[in-house]
Specification:
elongated; amino-acid biosynthesis; 9 helices; five-stranded mixed beta sheet; aromatic amino acid biosynthesis; lyase; alpha/beta; 280 residues; prephenate dehydratase
C-alpha cells in the first residue's frame, strides 16, 4: 500500500498542515470531500486519513460524527494542531485596500474581531486553501484570504496580518483513520478510546449507563448525542474516554454500559496527543 496520508481540501489546508506536522515523511493526498478522503483509505490509495473533528473556538466539524461510524475505518491516532489564521493577499497589496476576506465558514468565525475592526466583509469559500488559490487566480487586490502560512507560500500570496484569530489557544483536533484497528498500548501520555452507543429504552437510561464510568473512576472527555436515520426517537451517543478497553476500570465501565445499551461500537483506541494536556 502507498505510504500516503489523505486529507480533505486543497494543498495548504490546515489538514495538510496537520499531516505535515504529524507524519512529515508521508506523501499527502488532497481530496475533494471527507467521503473521498475516507474512500482513499478503504480503496488502498492512501494508508491513513487525517480528519478534523472539532475546533476549540468554533466547535465540532459538521457531519464528521455521522461519517466516522459509517466509514468502516478505525481511529489509530489523534493530533492537536494550533490554528494560526493569517490574512493573505496579492503581493504589494496594503491592508487598507482589503474590502473582503474569503475562507471556510469555520475560519471566518474564528477571527470576527479582526475583520470587524478593519471593516472587512466575510465571504464564504469552500475551504481555506481553496480560498487562497481563488484570491491568487482572481487577481483582485481588494480581496484577501484567511488561511495558513503554508497556503500563502503555495499560492504566492503575501501575508498582510499574522495570527489574527480571536483566541490565542485556537486549536483543531484531528483524528487519524486507518483500515485496520490498532489496540496496542503506545505513546507516553496514556490511551484514549472512542465509541458510539445506543441506549435501550429505559427510564433514566443515560444516567444509569454512565454510572459505571463514575464508579470506576474513568474520565469521559466528550459525550455528544445526535439523531440518526432522520428519526427523532433514534439517538446515538459519541464518547471519548481516557484509558484502554483492557484496563480493568475501563473494562468494568464498558460492561456496565453494555447492560443499558442495544449497541456499542468502538471506533478506535489510540495514544493521547501530549497537547491534549497542554504539553508539546
Amino acid at each position: 500500500m502507498t505510504d500516503r496520508i489523505a486529507f480533505q481540501g486543497e494543498p495548504g489546508a490546515y489538514s495538510h498542515q496537520a499531516c505535515h506536522e504529524t507524519y512529515p515523511d508521508m506523501e499527502v493526498l488532497p481530496c475533494r470531500t471527507f467521503e473521498d478522503t475516507i474512500a482513499a483509505v478503504r480503496e488502498g490509495t492512501a494508508r491513513l486519513a487525517m480528519v478534523p473533528v472539532e475546533n476549540s473556538t468554533f466547535g465540532r466539524v459538521a457531519d464528521i460524527h455521522h461519517l466516522l461510524p459509517e466509514s468502516g475505518l478505525h481511529i489509530v491516532d489523534e493530533a492537536f494542531v494550533r490554528v494560526h489564521i493569517n490574512l493573505l493577499a496579492l503581493p504589494g497589496t496594503r491592508l487598507d485596500q482589503i474590502e473582503s476576506a474569503m475562507s471556510h465558514t469555520m475560519l471566518l468565525g474564528q477571527c470576527r474581531a479582526f475583520l470587524e475592526r478593519h471593516g472587512i466583509h466575510r465571504v464564504t469559500g469552500a475551504d481555506t486553501a481553496g480560498s487562497a488559490r481563488h484570491v491568487a487566480e482572481a487577481g483582485d487586490p481588494s480581496m484577501a484570504a484567511l488561511a495558513s502560512e503554508l497556503a500563502g507560500k503555495i499560492y504566492g500570496l503575501e501575508m498582510l496580518a499574522r495570527h489574527i484569530e480571536d483566541h490565542s489557544t485556537n486549536t483543531t483536533r484531528f483524528l487519524v483513520m486507518a483500515a485496520e484497528p490498532d489496540f496496542a498500548p503506545r505513546g507516553q501520555n496514556g490511551m484514549m478510546t472512542t465509541l458510539v452507543f445506543r441506549l435501550r429504552s429505559l427510564p433514566a437510561g443515560l444516567y444509569k449507563a454512565l454510572g459505571g464510568f463514575a464508579t470506576n473512576g474513568v474520565n469521559m472527555t466528550k459525550l455528544e448525542s445526535y439523531m440518526i436515520g432522520g428519526n427523532f426517537n433514534v439517538v446515538q451517543f459519541y464518547a471519548d474516554i481516557e484509558g484502554h478497553p483492557d484496563d480493568p476500570a475501563v473494562a468494568r465501565a464498558l460492561d456496565e454500559l453494555d447492560y443499558f445499551t442495544s449497541e456499542i461500537t468502538i471506533l478506535g483506541v489510540y495514544p493521547a496527543d501530549p497537547r491534549r494536556y497542554g504539553e508539546g
